[in-house]
């Protein structure tokens, strides 16, 4: 059934999605465009971004505009905000999604420079986009949605630097929600667990046993499957369009991965 104008849940709202050319960001972008939004998205992969821009603009009913951007560079991040407002005259929603997950390894094998560089992307990138977007969001009483990852709450083996950056986003979200409430700007987050993305598939193919790795990934959820990028997008749409009395909250998009007991013993007396 074709969408009608009245059924578009975020029609003509102006949205920015960072890291929108693939993975979870792409799912968020697709859902907002499908619901009538005007979306500016950025990514470091220019070819992928241009391809996505062309394909989604053909499908509509909303529209999108791609900007090449390294979110860790303040001038580039600021340009995304300014170009959006210059193009569409306002900003209603910022979805901070761009980030990086380094290979798994113990803290001994991370350098301080590794951690510093990851903070530039995963924390300061979010800080910068929020800083420059908020003057415009205050005018529209808009909202911010941050991707904080489930590991911010449950931790992850071999990912001390990544988990730390995502924990910072949880705290940033709550602090901003407090500060921006007087402007009627809402700030929320979502925490994806095992979502089927090109990165997850690549990791599985690089493992010693693809089928076993996929099964392990599915079995980590109570629902027995991976989440989809579209499901992440729908959660973001809910936070932007429907959750108008919610601020400072987080929604897990995890299939229940954080619940119940499981085999967690890390101690092997034979070692």
Q: What can you see in these coordinates?
A:
Pfam families: adh_short_C2. One of its GO terms (biological process) is steroid catabolic process. InterPro entries: NAD(P)-bd_dom_sf, Sc_DH/Rdtase_CS, SDR_fam. With 271 residues, the protein is α/β, with parallel strands linked by helices. The chain has one domain (10-197, 227-253): 3-Layer(aba) Sandwich (Rossmann fold), CATH 3.40.50. The chain has 10 helices and 7 strands. The protein has helices at residues 23-34, 46-59, 74-88, 112-122, 124-140, 151-154, 160-180, 198-206, 210-219, 229-242, and strands at residues 14-18, 38-43, 63-68, 93-96, 143-147, 186-192, 250-253. Strands 3-2-1-4-5-6-7 form a 7-stranded parallel beta sheet, with helices on both faces. The termini are far apart.
Summarize the structure.
With 271 residues, the chain is of the alpha/beta class. It is 47% helix and 14% strand.
Give the ordered list of helices and strands: EHEHEHEHHEHHEHHHE
Mean of residue pLDDT?
95
Radius of gyration: 19 Å
Model regions low in confidence, pLDDT < 50 over at least 5 residues: none
Q: Which strand order does the major sheet show? A: 3-2-1-4-5-6-7
Shape: globular
Number of helices: 10
* CATH-level-4 superfamily name: NAD(P)-binding Rossmann-like Domain
The figure for the number of domains is 1
Strand count? 7
Question: What CATH architecture do you see?
Answer: 3-Layer(aba) Sandwich
Strand content: 5-15%
Q: Looking at the chains present, what oligomeric state does this protein adopt?
A: single chain
- Give the fraction of residues assigned to helices: 40-55%
Q: What separation lies between the terminal Cα atoms?
A: 61 Å
Largest sheet report: 7 strands, parallel
What CATH calls the topology is Rossmann fold
């Amino acid at each position: 059934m074709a969408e009608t104008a009245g059924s578009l849940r975020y029609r003509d709202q102006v949205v920015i999605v960072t890291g929108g050319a693939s993975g979870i960001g792409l799912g968020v972008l697709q859902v907002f465009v499908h619901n009538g939004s005007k979306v500016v998205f950025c990514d470091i992969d220019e070819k992928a971004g241009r391809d996505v821009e062309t394909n989604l603009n053909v499908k509509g009913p909303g529209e999108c505009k791609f900007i090449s951007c390294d979110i860790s560079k303040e001038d580039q991040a600021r340009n995304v905000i300014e170009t959006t407002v210059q193009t569409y005259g306002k900003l209603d929603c910022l979805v901070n999604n761009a980030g990086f997950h380094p290979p798994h390894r113990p803290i001994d094998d991370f350098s301080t420079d590794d951690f510093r560089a990851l903070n530039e992307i995963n924390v300061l990138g979010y800080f910068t986009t929020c800083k420059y977007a908020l003057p415009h969001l205050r005018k529209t009483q808009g909202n911010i949605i941050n991707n904080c990852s489930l590991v911010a709450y449950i931790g992850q083996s071999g990912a001390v630097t990544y988990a730390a950056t995502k924990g910072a986003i949880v705290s940033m979200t709550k602090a901003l929600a407090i500060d921006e409430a007087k402007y009627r700007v809402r700030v929320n987050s979502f925490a994806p667990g095992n979502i089927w993305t090109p990165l997850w598939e690549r990791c599985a193919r690089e493992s010693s046993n693809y089928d076993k790795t996929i099964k392990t990934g599915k079995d980590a959820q109570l629902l027995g499957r991976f989440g989809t990028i579209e499901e992440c997008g729908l959660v973001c749409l809910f936070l932007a369009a429907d959750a108008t009395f919610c601020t400072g909250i987080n929604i897990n998009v995890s299939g229940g991965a954080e619940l119940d007991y499981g085999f967690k013993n890390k101690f092997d007396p034979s070692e």
